[in-house]
Amino acid sequence: LESPSPAAGRHLTLPEGFRAAGVRCGLKQTGEDLALVAAEADVPAALLTTRNQVVGEPIKYCRSVLPRGCGRMRGIVINSGCSNVCTGPAGRKDAEEMARRAADRLQAAPERMLVASTGIIGHRLDMEKIRRGIDLAADELGTGNDDACARAILTTDTRIKTCVAIGELGGRAVTVAGIAKGSGMIAPSMATMISVLTTDATCRANVLRRCLREAADASFHAVTIDSDTSTSDTVAVFASGRAGNPSFAADSADGRRFAGLLRTVCEDLARQIAADGEGATRLVEVRVAGAHTPKQARIAAKAVADSPLVKCAIHGADPNWGRIAAALGKSAAKLDPDRLKIAIGGKTLLSGGRPRSFVAADVCEAMQREVVRIDCDLGCGEASYTALTCDLSREYIAINADYHT
Amino acid sequence: LESPSPAAGRHLTLPEGFRAAGVRCGLKQTGEDLALVAAEADVPAALLTTRNQVVGEPIKYCRSVLPRGCGRMRGIVINSGCSNVCTGPAGRKDAEEMARRAADRLQAAPERMLVASTGIIGHRLDMEKIRRGIDLAADELGTGNDDACARAILTTDTRIKTCVAIGELGGRAVTVAGIAKGSGMIAPSMATMISVLTTDATCRANVLRRCLREAADASFHAVTIDSDTSTSDTVAVFASGRAGNPSFAADSADGRRFAGLLRTVCEDLARQIAADGEGATRLVEVRVAGAHTPKQARIAAKAVADSPLVKCAIHGADPNWGRIAAALGKSAAKLDPDRLKIAIGGKTLLSGGRPRSFVAADVCEAMQREVVRIDCDLGCGEASYTALTCDLSREYIAINADYHT
Q1: In this structure, are residues B83 and B232 in contact, taking their beta carbons and an 8 Å threshold?
Q2: What residues are paired with B117 via a beta bridge?
Q3: Cβ separation of A86 and B322 shorter than 8 Å?
Q4: pLDDT tens digits for B193-209?
Q5: Using CB atoms, which residue from B226, B230, B401 is nearest to A315?
Q6: Which of A243, A331, B38, B347 would staple A200 via disulfide (CB 3.0–4.6 Å)?
Q7: Which of A18, A71, A69, A78 is nearest to A47 (CA)?
Q8: Whole-model pTM?
Q9: CA–CA separation, A290 vs A114, rounded Å?
């Protein structure tokens, strides 16, 4: 597969060897709030978790069962509505019990289940509801619709986020599928809030982890809704091997193909997360080129993507390139003010550090589209990076000022 | 003066040896938009300017006449409504002409005048209006009311920001007065948007600069409205020597007293800037203690003060300490999750990394006051820092999405 592209349907469509369920156990006000994704046997898996220093008990548990971030696992159980963060030893026991109960129902060893929780910080899980939910989900595995699983992990998201990509490895068709949640407290520094990826490829756990790291760098790590890295970011990938392709090394041709497939799914999910940021009306791509180093390109792109002034200007469809210039200039990334270039929607507004004349109505129109593209050139080198964000609207304030602890 | 406190009146009340004027020249839609502050002769002065890499032409000009940041100067001319940034050599000539015309009217040498501009980026100044404004301001010097000068430097600010403190040096009463503007694109990394300080103290220019640096670190540098460092931050101080106190070294007892006086005025102006941030309804003080180093304390305090989720929670009077914990944890400042402590309005919500029971109504009430205080202890050392910010409201979006280029 030369350039994999996500399948049109955007439905979960689990690869061979996996079953999933999403049920309501009553932690959220309405809708499904407990998801279970299970392989038929213990399979190679890899995990990335948040870099926040305050981490949830589920993440501490996952790190304890996968100390090197990869190994053979059966599946993952996820609840929304309560993140089980800052809950201490009692919260840790709750996370362990979630894993154990799900493992029991799947006839797996307890340490083969991953756990993730998302929602309010500082509250204990209602374990009676969780237990009931796990039993219900285990009963429904593979019988319900896949969307219920993608729905059960959402919090303030307005729509489910799923992606499937199909490629070929060693003459065999291979599928990679993923679900994700995003919306608020999104500036992942290891992964997004929560994403679960499944594939029928044959792939060793350590190769899986290396591919996942690369895919996350180009996708989830590029997203910033509000610069607030969560305490619960988790992305897990499981590989059932049911495609029957021969095993491959990370740096082989098949390894590059598989990594590309995984990156395609992660990039598509990351774009869905950015487009559905809290209060978002538009997806914003900030591409910075001409940076001295890749790290400086990332810093500059994130400075623009995190600027509330830039995000308000996009919401108002105002071609205010001055705010973009100021955001680039305040960042730690080196720029040459006399070679600085800024374009919005393909229209150049600043080049050689000087304003260019433009038709405001044309740029306004480009800024009202579903996807707004900002291109910047720092004039200092060859490195580039693309950050993903959304506009900043009154709705963001409504969601986050009216939401109560 | 052991603990100087700002005078009650909060009016500009220029110290002896200075005159000021604020007039309307027509750059803004309404109100005064050109300010002139002038000493009777060339006097010791010091200057701090933005660390943004994209800097306005007025700042480039000021740096050229004061390459070491201090020297003998006559005064400063400031316009609002247009920042003269990204305007190239033509913009540089405009800045020079502003200085020259003001100097001519004061019978000073052209290189003795400082210039500052604030407002939209990327537009040329309307020099016909500027010339008329300078002539008008020179005619009105000392005859109008001082508030007009403080008003003429404002952009989206809703009120003037002035402060006066009085102390004693070498047996003489000494006055320090200041005006400032803030409101949007405020995360000063050298100074605030614009502030002009005047004193009748006798003080050498290099001592003045050292005192100004220290005062700015404890005041303007602690403010963040929206994390967007401006291209035009400027703070200037002038010392007329009319108080007649003996000259002093920076590290003498008088030096410490004078530095304290200057810091008092800067801190008070910084609090006024934070309280009048775009869309602000409350001033928020984020005090971080228990940090490993002073730099880490600052990083942690700024991470909380810059978190849109925390600022929305304050706007909604929601005691959502989880967002504060997440903001501290994502920062580069080291913290001990098991010793972390968070209090809002003096009420402890988290200690030893565990939630404490609290009466939500009490904390809500504390969060609806004019000043909301957040105390955090990272449990890692002795260093502390206090950052200043405001809440994040729908009005911020309205101001910045509806404002058009």
Answers
A1: yes
A2: B79
A3: yes
A4: 678 888 888 888 888 88
A5: B401
A6: A243
A7: A69
A8: 0.79
A9: 41
> What pLDDT does residue B170 have?
87
Active centre residues of B (catalytic): 192
Q: Which residues of chain A have pLDDT under 50?
A: 1-11, 190-192
The list of chain B residues with pLDDT below 70 reads 1-13, 144, 184-193, 229, 403-405
Cβ B328–A88 below 8 Å, yes or no?
no
Residues in chain A: 405
* 3-state secondary structure at position A34: strand
DSSP sequence for A262-293: HHHHHHHHHHHHHHTSTT-SSEEEEEEEEESS
Can you tell me the ipTM of this complex? 0.76
Cβ under 8 Å to B: A residues 251-290: none
In sequence order, the 6+-apart residues with CB closer than 8 A to the CB of A152 are A22, A23, A24, A31, A32, A33, A34, A35, A78, A79, A80
CA distance A4 to chain B (A): 34
CA distance to partner chain B, nearest, from residue A155 (Å): 15
Between CA B130 and CA B58 the distance in angstroms is 14
Give kind and range of the element (H or E) at residue A70: strand A70-82
C-alpha dist (Å) from residue A275 to A89, A183, A225, A315, B326: 37, 9, 9, 13, 23
Contact A316 B340 (CB under 8 A): no
Short-list B64, B99, B62, B47, CA closest to B205:
B47
Reported as a single tens digit per residue, the pLDDT across A296-336 is: 999 999 999 999 889 999 999 999 898 899 889 888 899 99
In angstroms, the CA B52 to CA B265 distance is 24
Please judge whether B402 and A316 are an interchain contact, meaning their C-beta atoms are less than 8 angstroms apart. yes
Residue A31 contacts B where some CB pair is shorter than 8 Å: no
CA distance A276 to B262: 48
pLDDT score of B405: 59
Residue with tokens 């080291």: B334
Instruction: Name the minimum distance, in Å, from the CA of A270 to any CA of chain B.
Output: 20
Instruction: Name the region of B267 (left: φ>0; alpha: ψ -120 to 50; beta: rest).
Output: alpha
